[in-house]
Give the backbone structure.
Amino acid sequence: MKYLNMRNIGMYTLAIMFSTMLFFSTSSCTQNKKTESFLSLKNGIGTDFLIGVAVNTNETSGLDTLGAALIARQFNSIVPENCMKCAEIHPEENRFSWESADQYVDFGVKHHMFIIGHCLIWHSQLAPWFCVDSIGRDVSPSVLKQRMKFHISTIVSRYKGRVKGWDVVNEALLDDGSYRNSKFYQILGEEFIPYAFKCAHEADPQAELYYNDYSLFLPSKQQGVLHIVKSIRDYGAMITGIGMQSHFTMDGPSISQVQTAIDTLSSTGCKLMITEFDLSVLPFPNDINGAGIEQTEKYSIQYNPYTKSLPDSIEQVWSTHMKDYFDLYRSNKSKIERVTIWGLTDKSSWRNDWPILGRTDYPTLFNRDYTAKQFTKTLMR
Ligand code: G3I
């Protein structure tokens, strides 16, 4: 009996010790899991500046439930990747297509996001009717102005008070700082830009208004932007900010190039925003740069080296570059209002198909399975 009692006491003690250990281990795991699941970008880097993401219609319509949940938990700002572009939202002169844009804005309001509109005037994805008459001739300057005013005022006033900032004009410059020879420029000259900003401000005086472009690390392009800002102000119109798209590659730009761009562009007194940040890990053909959607290149395996997965060594280099860029943005947070990533996951990134269709790139903060990359976790709290 004595032995039995001692044995029972021993077993009882062991049972108590095991269940105690089990309780603390699971509770700490649960705690860790719970902590892990509550980690977010918006509570981390998002306290230095708005942290945003370009969203697609699968995510904002709820079709992509994982994507929608991840966006809601991680970000405090959104921008529509495509649904508000002219060809999508205003396909015919007297017909608007509101469904996707309404879903996008409703998603942003539901999740208390800083909602951006993208983009009111752009030479690409332009509805084919916009700058020509019924037999294909360029319309007159006055007709184009009427159409721009109708387009801008109808869209901006529909979302007045909910869309907080608009990419009013997108990519109007070439790398040398001269004006792109778009239809808008051919018909109206430089005036199309200040005129667009004037129309947007009249439609929603409270909305922030941005000029948005890529490769603004080029000094020549910076000078072009300074000229645009001056032209808007001389016209009596209003501009709030300059969008530096920031579609970067493993070849650059350097930190000092981006810092110089920040210093030059913030000298206008405009807010700055990093509007379309992504960092491709892929090699590019020599004559391809920036983000000009019109640039394309035929497929070759030499430009698509990581079809199965990304080697750890390459992810390490990518992470180092990303840390350098985010450290730079943090050190300039008094000038930078927002950093938006152009795409939620590597799978949904436009980089997989530009400038070469069918590649496998790894340019965003989240993996193809919606998990956060190691670097991304360093931005979370
Ligand atoms: O919606 C049609 C679909 O009906 C059709 O079946 C399919 C195949 O042809 O095309 C779909 O439209 C595509 C659209 O993305 C939506 O997926 C267009 O072809 C395609 O050209 C378009 O690409 C977008 C690109 O802008 C061109 O507008 C990219 O998703 C988008 O990430 C990219 O974003 C631009 C910014 O707006 C401005 N800055 C540069 C950036 C990268 O080019």
Notes: Residues 81-82, 124-125, 170, 245, 276, 291, 293, 350 surround G3I (CB under 6 Å). The longest strand covers residues 114-122.
